[in-house]
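Lab notebook, entry 214. We have the chain sequence and a SMILES string for glutathione, and the next step in the workflow is to get a structural model of the bound complex before anyone spends time on docking refinements. Request logged below.

Task: model protein plus glutathione, output structure tokens.
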Amino acid sequence: MRLYGCHNTRSLRAAWALEEAGAPYEYAFVNLFKGEGRRPEFLALNPGGKLPVLVDEGFALTESGAIVAYVADRFPASGLLPADARRRAECLRWMFFAIGELEQPLWTIAKHRFALPAERRVPAIEPTAAWEFGVAAGLVADALGARAFLVGDAFTAADILVAHCLSWGASLKLPLAPALESYRVAQLARPAARRAVEREKAAAEAAKRMEAGS
Ligand SMILES: N[C@@H](CCC(=O)N[C@@H](CS)C(=O)NCC(=O)O)C(=O)O
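Result returned:
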């Protein structure tokens, strides 16, 4: 398998899932900050020019949520997607919630702070998006209660997506309730999450060194 990614992007979700699953994979660094997502060879993989992309024996998959689910299916022993139908449904429910409810206000803030062309930005939208994130995060906090994981008593793919969104929120300086902050920190401290962060960082640093040397 080959994961196309870049540090500080949604590709961390995919790398984290691969690390949790113990999957062997190559990491291909695509420097989004230098426009490499617009290169023809990358657009051939993902016409949208976005990361992450996972390629598994010629099968190219985009969308971070779908990639995490695919990794979970390819490596069932990882337990990332529970086998029991209702547990699995709960897991999918939180995965969809992460992408549809938690992530959207974050993406709105990021787009209107820096990602959109300057003439398209509407900074006045930010307080509303921050409020929406707070409402969605509150629902996660209520569902979690004092438990360590979102689904049953085991780590699943839902924790990857939700914890990643909460970290994104923290990096945008949005407040998190103490219990949610503890949950986020605990998930990101997992050895697999740390390895994924390191793998992405190391790939970026290696590319930088190569550039400096060439
Ligand atoms: N819904 C997609 C969003 C992917 C996305 O927007 N990725 C960003 C990095 S986090 C990207 O590649 N942006 C480059 C661009 O828009 O040109 C997913 O979850 O995979």
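Notes for the group: The first strand starts at residue 2 and ends at 5. Worth checking against the assay data. The helical segments are 11-21, 40-45, 64-74, 85-115, 126-144, 157-171, 178-188, 191-213.
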